[in-house]
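User: Please predict the structure of the protein below. I'd like the answer in structure-token form so I can feed it into my own downstream comparison script.

Assistant: Understood. Taking the following sequence of 213 residues as input:
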Amino acid sequence: MHLTPQHILLAGATGLTGEHLLDRLLSEPTVVRVVAPTRRPLAEHPHLTNPVGPIPELLTQLHGPLDTAFCCLGSTIRQAGSQEAFRAVDHDLVLAVAQRARELGARHFIVVSALGANPKSQVFYNRVKGEMEEGLKAQDWPQLTIARPSLLLGPRSDFRVSERLAAPLMRWVPGKYRGIYACTLARALWRLALEEDSGVRIVESDDLRRLGR
């Protein structure tokens, strides 16, 4: 378990999970610096470095050292506007963030993927998530943690019709398919960051709920 000061990169700090995770990180006494590149400014904090602009353009401006990197980036095809635009965020940008974090010294990368991620899936969304996971594995991280949550529950700034309709049902679905609250996922991600291990670990949604209690 990490007890030494932590320098952390958080990509996706303005998203549903990222907002909760950022609050958590900034309240942790062992976290001395959080680097969170965003498109819109975040509230100032003495331990927060917040470059503002398009994230792909900000990556080369980031500076280390880093210990751990979190990636909570994610969109939908409807939100992105096309399959190509969706892939540019949920695959290409995730891999670019990871590569830059590795260059800055991070040894542990923690990414929010999705339940059902599979590079051979017939479902485009799940296939892109699976290809993203395979791309991260190919980067040969000392420690790579892949979180696969089910439907994320909680208030969003953007309206998503399908998620709004499915959310009441997903609270009662058994096992790993049950929806998970973003605040629970954020707590689980931080607990996973504290675990010192090596290699790749995939954590399904039911285990994420347990870790985030």
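That's the full token string. Residues 159-163 have pLDDT under 50 and may be disordered.
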